[in-house]
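Quiz preparation item.
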């Protein structure tokens, strides 16, 4: 188990509401919540538009495939990206379209619960709408895999009662912040086509998640994030784990969801194996633990989805998103023990400079 001694940590449940930021552009109340307590307003941010980062990321998976879709306005760069993970074949395809200097013009919604994205260029088209009934995702990208185009039509509904919401500051910059919501374990339907491959996601098996992020970051950051979802013993089980990003002394983002009800965890460590040369061995088995002895999971790895961007040392991104299966035990808030077996998910280690 990792050594958590000496770490300053409070895990504060947010009690306030209203605007996210105060009149000086600082977070009014760092902490965590189960539903979004604050209003995100770009006009209240005390930073130039090129530093503001807004994104929506969706992942839908069943036992055969995972489809990941990203739409992000990162200030001086926009990103429209898709990844297809083929579990049986042990391979992935990632294709991204970079948009220069969007500076907020990609018009992402200010709410994670409602709004729409309508965007296209000569290569990609994004048409996403969120209402109280669910989330409709229409996405296409030309030349996604060689000459084959990607087309996807997805519907996500039956959102869980609870989600993971965190408001995180940076100690070194009081105008930097991260407002994030993860909705895990939505029922997913629809399908995608890549060339001759067509796959349908069936409601009784497929699940979807949303990673909704808004904020202003410092330039150089490293984070670890894991998410999993699936059906276990007649229950829908989801998991969100993460650390390393901003000043998380007031709250962690670590939660487990059983039939949509959140169980809050404290600090976690992914236990990524390290080789004799001091580098991570991403495809060796991981051992995921926490600071209270409530989390004991083995992560059996299948695919390391890697991506590397280096634009003249100004924009640098080194990504390892490892897909695999979690097995082990989690102690819930009432003290009962949840056994998970082959719960499909991913765990990532990402270093960004932008």
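Solution:
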């Amino acid at each position: 188990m990792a050594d958590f001694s000496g770490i300053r940590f409070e895990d504060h449940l947010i009690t306030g509401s209203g605007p996210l930021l105060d009149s000086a552009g600082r977070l009014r109340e760092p902490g965590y919540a189960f539903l979004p307590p604050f209003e995100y307003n770009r006009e209240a941010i005390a930073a130039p538009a090129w530093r503001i980062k807004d994104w929506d990321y969706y992942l839908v998976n069943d036992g055969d495939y995972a489809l990941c879709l990203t739409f992000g306005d990162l200030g001086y760069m926009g990103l429209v990206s898709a990844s297809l993970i083929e579990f049986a074949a042990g391979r992935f395809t990632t294709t991204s379209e970079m948009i220069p200097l969007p500076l907020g013009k990609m018009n992402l919604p200010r709410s994670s619960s409602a709004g729409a994205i309508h965007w296209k260029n000569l290569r990609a088209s994004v048409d996403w709408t969120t209402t109280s009934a669910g989330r409709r995702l229409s996405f296409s990208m030309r030349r996604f895999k060689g000459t084959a185009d990607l087309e996807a039509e997805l519907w996500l509904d039956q959102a869980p009662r609870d989600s993971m919401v965190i408001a995180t500051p940076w100690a070194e910059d009081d105008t930097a912040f991260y407002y994030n919501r993860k909705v895990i374990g939505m029922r997913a339907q629809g399908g995608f086509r890549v060339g001759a491959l067509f796959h349908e996601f069936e409601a009784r098996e497929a699940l979807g998640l949303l990673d909704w992020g808004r904020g202003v970051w410092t330039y150089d950051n490293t984070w670890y994030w894991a998410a999993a979802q699936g059906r276990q013993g007649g229950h829908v089980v989801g998991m969100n784990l993460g650390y390393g990003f901003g000043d998380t002394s007031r709250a962690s983002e670590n939660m487990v969801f059983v039939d949509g009800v959140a169980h809050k965890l404290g600090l976690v460590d992914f236990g990524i194996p390290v080789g004799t040369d001091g580098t991570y061995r991403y495809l060796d088995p991981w051992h995921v633990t926490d600071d209270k002895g409530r989390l004991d999971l083995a992560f059996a790895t299948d695919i390391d989805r890697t991506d590397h961007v280096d634009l003249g040392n100004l924009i640098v991104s080194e990504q390892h998103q490892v897909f695999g299966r979690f097995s082990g035990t989690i102690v819930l808030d009432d003290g009962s023990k949840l056994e998970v077996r082959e719960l499909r998910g991913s765990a990532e280690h990402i270093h960004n400079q932008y």
